[in-house]
Amino acid sequence: MRSITIVDGRLEVADRPLPQPAADGVVVRVHGAGLNRADLLQRAGRYPAPPGVPADIPGMEFAGIVAAVGNEVSTPVPGDHVCGITAGGAQAEYVAIPAVHCAPVPDNLGLVEMGGVPEVYITAHDALVTQAHLAPGEWTLVHAIGSGVGTAALQLARAAGARVIGTARTADKIARCRSLGLEAGIVPARTADGALDADALAWEIVETTGGGADVTLDTVGGDYITADVNAAAPKGRIVCIGTIAGGRVTLPIMAILGKRLTLIGTVLRGRDVAEKAAATSAFVRDVIPLLADGRVVPVLEATFPLERASEAYALLESDTTFGKVILDCT
Question: Which domains does the chain have, with CATH numbers?
């Protein structure tokens, strides 16, 4: 099979043996494989794949057609259209995963576009609903609102009856998110040296929401976390899922104590089979119906064939994308 491989920090298309299903697993003929920032880190040698998945084939989400199943699997069956998450290996013509990590693809959606859905929607749903217990009417703050996770979180929060305020690097991304239900948007102010003005951002969030964010989905980290704390409403929940802006920050502890805030750190890739199965099951229960009836939609920036994976990675790395970049593996 053809697969994307990482060779000394470069991407190459290589021929690899077809994977075989485990007794409780399936092999999927991949049609679409979404790109994520973790793929950029893995290419750079800063986020190695965990044991049990190909060390040099990136890719953490896919959609395709079940090609083979293990002898302990009753569902899905060969021919089923499925999507799902994996710890690696999805940017190839075939991928082997546990059967319990498969979700059905709605009939109204294509397999290539669905290849960019599982990672961002499962991440956003797990963070907002399962962990932060988002409630109708609450203000939800989403950083990098135009990203894959950002556009997914925006739509899921709106579907839950929440109000959404988002941040982005450009006003264009804020404007494009209006059609997805964004109520308020902010392009964060910068200091003279180009650093985030966390105090100004926090003040603008509090003023715009009339008291602060009840739930925050922070995909960037760094000084944004300081702003999150200062902009949080009493009993606010802050879920941290990324560190693009830095992995260390000085926190205003008195604000955390005084507001009785909850700070949650989360990641999907390192979870065990049962935990990923639970997150997938929640996605099937709550999100697949929304995708099926069009209340939430995949947001795509661009699609590239496997042979142009380097271009796809460069586009994602540019920080100019709105929604997902996907590899067409057909």
Answer: 2-117+269-328 (3.90.180.10), 120-265 (3.90.180.10)
Question: Is residue 4 within 8 Å of 327, Cβ to Cβ?
Answer: yes
Residue 254 pairs in a beta bridge with none
Say if residues 151 and 124 touch (Cβ distance below 8 Å): no
pLDDT, position 244: 85
- The mean pLDDT of 244-257, rounded to a whole number, is 92
From first CA to last CA, the distance across the chain in angstroms is: 11
Distance CA 127, CA 208 (A): 23
Show the beta-strand stretches assigned E in the chain: 2-7, 10-15, 25-34, 61-69, 81-85, 94-98, 102-104, 139-142, 163-167, 184-186, 213-218, 232-240, 262-265, 300-305, 324-328
Instruction: Provide CB contacts within 8 A for 227, sequence distance 6+.
Output: 188, 196, 198, 199, 201, 202, 205
- Specify whether the CB–CB gap between 306 and 131 falls below 8 A: no
Asked whether the bond before 76 is cis by omega within 30 degrees of 0, the reply is: yes
- Longest pairwise C-alpha distance within the chain: 63
Summarised one tens digit per residue, pLDDT across range 142-188 is: 999 999 999 999 999 999 999 999 999 999 999 999 999 999 999 99
Picking from 301, 294, 324, 325, the residue whose alpha carbon sits closest to that of residue 312 is 325
